[in-house]
């Protein structure tokens, strides 16, 4: 089977020469392992961090070895109790066609209960990120006015809709194209949305939220964060989920110039990692699953086909090619 290797650590925007698609032998599963034929691969912004050597919350990808990431596939051979050939599993050895996975790192998923890619997105890691970040880190409550950036993406689109379904007074989103802005308002039910590329974020946010915001869910950082601090109401909360605008920077980005507003607003900024919130997974599935099934919570996926396009799909996420979760279908 083929697998993607990292050859050199990208500086700035990753270049195709930093990677190679390599033919690798597929070993038989050892004791307690299963062999999986991957069907859907996840590409996510955090992978950019793993391409760097810098110490972080997950280990850097090793040079000359297969990269990793979320994946769903069919078990084709099992040497583990509780998992049989024909079962479908969610695991962490993406970026490859076939994976030998320790059964303890594989979670069985039901293709009848939800389409397989949903376990990587709307009912998976990005969905839980939205749920935990909004409800726990930002301590969202009914009546809050919520602003979310990256609002047409996997996490952001779910943040806005969960806030609406949970009784937000107003939900505002920002995204990088007029088409995405239209989708937010017309399909996802956002009260207002704007294209951050067509004018200063602070001005557009002030126009969209004349009475200020109570919660900002940050996927982007940079001028979005500064604008949110500028519009923050008393006791406002900012959940820092991601800062995609700086992931390819080679120099540290300037910080928000208006942090002093946190004093008068008694505002709070807090970062979070979804990995710390898996205790919420059952509650998340119980609450959000029915909304997805009923269509009250809508979602899109951008599906790119073929292992040879895995890298392009990843780069596409950094560029904004995706609407909703970016998925690679094998
Ligand atoms: P998305 O589906 O939102 O895809 C990323 C989007 O970011 C693109 O579609 C693009 O949309 C937008 N973007 C790219 N560059 C910029 C920029 N310079 N300024 C503004 N927007 C930009 O990805 P996810 O939903 O998977 O992730 C969203 C965020 O959440 C990321 O920052 C990610 O790192 C973070 N995250 C954090 C987790 C945690 O545990 N803390 C877990 C999962 C994700 P557009 O067209 O609008 O520019």
UniProtKB/TrEMBL annotation:
The keyword Oxidoreductase applies. The keyword Cytoplasm does not apply. Keywords: Oxidoreductase. It comes from the Bacteria. Pfam families: ADH_N_2 (PF16884), ADH_zinc_N (PF00107). Residues 15-328 form the Enoyl reductase (ER) domain. This is NADP-dependent oxidoreductase. It comes from Streptomyces pimonensis.
């Amino acid at each position: 089977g083929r697998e993607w290797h990292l050859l050199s650590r990208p500086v700035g925007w990753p270049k195709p020469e930093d990677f190679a698609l390599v033919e690798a032998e597929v070993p038989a599963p050892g004791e307690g392992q299963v062999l999986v034929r991957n069907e859907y691969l996840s590409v996510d912004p955090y992978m950019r961090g793993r391409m760097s050597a810098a110490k972080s919350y997950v280990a850097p990808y090793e040079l000359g070895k297969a990269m990793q990431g979320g994946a769903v596939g069919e078990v084709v051979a099992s040497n583990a109790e509780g998992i049989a050939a024909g079962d479908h599993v969610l695991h962490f050895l993406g970026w490859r066609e076939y994976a030998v996975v320790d059964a303890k790192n594989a979670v069985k998923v039901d293709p009848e209960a939800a389409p397989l890619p949903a376990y990587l997105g709307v009912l998976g890691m990005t969905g839980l990120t939205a749920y935990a970040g909004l409800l726990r880190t930002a301590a969202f409550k009914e009546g809050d006015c919520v602003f979310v950036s990256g609002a047409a993406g996997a996490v952001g689109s779910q943040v806005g809709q969960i806030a609406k379904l949970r009784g937000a007074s107003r939900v505002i989103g920002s995204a990088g194209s007029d088409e995405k802005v239209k989708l937010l308002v017309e399909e996802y039910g956002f009260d207002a949305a704007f294209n951050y590329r067509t004018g200063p974020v602070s001005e557009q946010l002030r126009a969209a939220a004349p009475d200020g915001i109570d919660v900002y869910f940050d996927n982007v950082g940079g001028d979005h964060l500064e604008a949110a601090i500028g519009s923050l109401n008393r006791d406002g909360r900012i959940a820092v989920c991601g800062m995609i605008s700086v992931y390819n920077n080679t120099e540290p980005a300037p910080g928000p110039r208006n942090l002093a507003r946190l004093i008068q607003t008694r505002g709070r900024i807090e970062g979070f990692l979804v990995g710390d919130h898996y205790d919420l997974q059952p509650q998340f599935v119980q609450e959000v699953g029915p909304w997805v099934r009923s269509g009250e919570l809508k979602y899109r996926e951008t599906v790119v086909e073929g292992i040879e396009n895995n890298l392009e799909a990843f780069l596409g996420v950094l560029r904004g090619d995706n609407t909703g979760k970016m998925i690679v279908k094998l």
